Amino acid sequence: MKMTGEYTLYPARWLMLALFSLSTCSNAALWTTFAPISTDASTFFFADTTSYVAINMIALLYQIFYLPGTIMASVLVERAGLRSAVVAGTALTAAGAAVRYTAAHALGGSATSYAFVLCGQALCAVAQPCFVNAPGLLAANWFGANERDAATTVATLFAVIGNAVGQIMPPAMVSSDSEGNVTGVVSLLLSQAILSVVCLLGVYFGFVSHPPTSPSSSTEERDKIHSAGKLAASSPPVGGEPTQPLIAPSASSSGLMSDDSSLVTIDVTVASSQNNNSRALHSQASVLTDSQRADLHSKYGHVMSAAASLLADRNYRLLLLSFGLGLALFNALLTVLNNILSPCGYTEDDAGGFAAALIGAGLLGAAVAGWSMDTYHNYRPLLKGGFTMAAATTFALAACVRADNAAALYSVFALLGLFMIPMLPVMIENSIECTYPVSEELSAGILFAAGNVVGIPVTFLMQYTIDEGGDGACGSFASPVNLLIMAVACMCSLVVMQYQGPYKRRMLEKA
Fold first, then answer.
1. Residue 235 confidence class, pLDDT cut points 50, 70, 90
2. What's the Cα-to-Cα distance from 136 to each of 106, 151, 202, 429, 477, rounded to whole Å?
3. For tag attachment on the chain, is the N or C end more exposed, with fewer CB atoms within 10 Å?
4. What is the DSSP string of 449-468?
């Protein structure tokens, strides 16, 4: 065990990080299984019919079900801790992967097997928030203040690594001949199902929510505040009056209050919401027992009141808008990348290579960003610089999408990944810092939910602009799809420049 001041860091933290990260990777790899082989996948399921919309829908389910999955994950974390959410996520992923494989193996390529694949994909999609929303919570629960940012970065990046696996494996394993016979789909789905089951076994037998003692002062303080709120929420009304929430004395006495009033707003909002919930429950006393009333209250009241406090914070809303649009753009770009490039004569293998360059460079950039955050805690400058450079790179991308220009495209996609992908952990850390002591999982979860919900219309809009441009769009800087990508990227950059969120967690640890 490693001692950091009065706090103990347990060696098991590395096992927790590994189990969580591999499970995240397994789930993320299932997201874009068919996107890089959209032509072969369409042929496999629909014979001679080329239906890019139907194949894109498989990936879009991850965005469609993100909000319900976030609600499920948040309630699980609130009720039973991080372990319950991670076990549920790995179980749903394994079940969904098994359904996908079974459908393709038993029914072959057909519209019926496609329908079952959609059902399996929906299970995987509901599971995604259990992983994507939780890196900050895992890092805070297990890692000290000087390791926390790096741990968040590693856990976040395994979702990106999973996306890379999902982009690289399908073109490598699936092929078609001149007669249109597609092979390798069943083997691909089997390998993904096996990986998911292995992750489920590892998590079930090895993963726990937190160590015996807190790894940092901020985590210890957060747990005190949350415990006080839960105690108040679970206390039945006395004499017909709702119970007031308890606020940990140390929360109001810290140096946070003198620099920002957001924590007071959080506590007041929580109190107001809990009072309203208590009155509603009290009015149903004739049909609900005290224990049932407390159970309903603790299930939903704390999560909803904390979510309301986040949305009342201006800095958090700026993060929500910029990240929501940015993640929507990133997801849409990965989903329809092959369709953007095919008019210029690039193959599915080429699209997979460009995506690999984007993700590979992004992993390198994120490693540097994680080190910088741990060393200098420069969350805001990294956020603003990354968004600005990513927006500038979209102009280079628009200029380079033309025939016989693969070398330049590899370079541009690498630059795009270098600036875009590090924004995932950087955004998580900024949201945690400016919303502390709200649950790390909830503050990140709302951001990712927004990005995935907005990503649905953005993906359809991007595909529409591709269809509108047709083959003539190749080589045109001002093609409809290029204009859309540049406009969204610039909007994100302009919004994030307004962000001035405080470092509340860092301030507490310095106090």
1. low
2. 41, 8, 21, 7, 39
3. N
4. HHHHHHHHHHHHHHHHHHHH
